Amino acid sequence: MKVCVVCYGLREQNIRLQPWRYISEIAYGLFNKNLDVMIITDGFSERHYINGIPIIHMRKLREFPFQQNKELVSLIKSEKPDIILWSVSALDYLYLNIFKQIHVPIIGIFTGPIYRLSDISRIGSREIVNNIRFLFVHIVYASLPPFFIRNVVNSPQLNKIFVMSRKNKEIITDIGGNQNKVVHIPVGIDEYDFEQSEEYSSIISKYDLDERSFNILYFGSPLSIRGIDSLIKAVSKIKNEYSHVKLLILSRRRENELSREELATQDLILKLGLEKNVQIISGFLDRDEVKNFIVFSDLIALPFKIVPSDVPTSILESMALGKTVISTEVDGIPELLEDGRGFVVKPNNEEDLAEKIVFSIKTRGLTKSMGKKAASYMQTYPRWHEVSEAVISEITEISNKRYLNEVVL
């Protein structure tokens, strides 16, 4: 069976990041099950391979609304796939005519959160302006009326809709999407993520860390929409009473990227007099080193104001290692941390965040037990190969129905 995956913006350098991690892991899982897999994405690169899967770049995957994309349709038809996994959003209501030209079963994949304008406006106009290049797409999608999503989901051209969180499934069905078409295919996790690191002593000397401190870890980009400023302000509120608190920031950015955002973070630290309480480690660390920091830390804080892509893998990785996570009531995050598996606070609220940090310091035993509960939950959480098996099951069901229909006809 040949499977064609259509997604936007896939590059080798962002394959560790969501939503491309989700797309690529599914594609690779299907490839490992001996399915013939190819990926079509936008861009100008020559045809190349990632993990043995051919990647074909096209100038555009979308033309103007309601117009045909003859080049894309022609390419798909020439490849003769048996089924297509297509990354979709509310905006695809304007491009349903493309799906109508492709007489192959299509599964739509919603890889992003479904926000309302109120979800975005709560972070404040100034922050929206400062982060407009990262929020623009979310603002556009949130501005679209609900029938855009409903009509995409209910389109007869899409056989199924995959979502990464239960939250998105609830939202889609609440606005009239056919719940029988919407399937929750969660983000997976690797066995590697469960392997406890015994080498974290190497980072203690390398980065001059102090095991006697109460170490809080943030890892991710330095964008304020990820709540890094709220976290710094929360530490500022408790530093006098709890001077042994240390916030470690793994500022994930490449050279010449997000330098302005990281500088703003440094300025905030200086303004609040937190030079002794906050340490920034800048750059893209490898997976082993990030894991060492997770194992070393007493608490993981990822207080998103906006989740750029559905279901942050950083939370899953921390839970798998038995760490207690503080995060926010955003998108599908609460469903990961519910039932005492972590702390959930209001987004953009440093008071709430500071309160939970203090609680963690005062009740270390309880905090550790929450981490153990999180680790126990993650033992039952789907691995990536199980996610791929779930996708294959849905593909097989669609293929069997199509075969039966052809036999009847």
UniProtKB/TrEMBL annotation:
Domain Glycosyl transferase family: 205-375
Top-rank taxon: Archaea
Molecular functions per Gene Ontology: glycosyltransferase activity
Name of the protein described by the UniProt record: Membrane-bound galactosyl-transferase
